[in-house]
# Entry
Amino acid sequence: MISPEIPVPYVLAYSGEAVPQRLSFAEDPMSGMLRLSHRAPRPRSDWTRGVLLARIRTHQRGEVMWRMLNRHRQWQCMIRHLCQVCAGPATDPATGRLWWVITETGFRATESAGGLTNAPPTCPACIPASLRFCPQLRKSATVYTVGGVEFAGVLADLYEPGPGGQAVFAGERNVFVGWEEFAILPYALATQMVVRLHGMEPAPHLSPEAALVVAS
Ligand SMILES: [Zn+2]
# Structure
């Protein structure tokens, strides 16, 4: 059971926020090529950098989905460098570096002090409670500070065009698609933003509680 005093991270999805994705393939007015689209498209808000965004509500009603991130709030945390728990700034005012909790499953190293993740930053005030309460973090979390963040791409579900412009699920979910993968972006429904972290350094201990992390 989840006890009531556990803070519900800002970034988590709620059951009432899910929206059925009604998809089809339609001609892109710019390129004339087929691309994945919502059936009632909203051209100003449906696409970012050529990729279709999964629709989601943001009213935070229903049950908390402890293993799912709300696409809109995840995106907002990444773009504005907000803490995924309290939605406050995750940048250290003294150093300008960002605080980041890294887990084995949510991170892929791509350089000696950097890599890809879809987990937003966490501010120092929220780190001890996150490490204490989140079962996934208790298993394999390390706290870092990060020198730079770059938008790398998305996690997406992939579709292919069927008869009459139908969107047929291609069998792959949560596939990483980079912003430069122009051949794949028109077939992708983005569910999370992925960023590339640079200049990662193990963080100084925040408190005795935070130090327990690595040990457990
Ligand atoms: Zn916070």
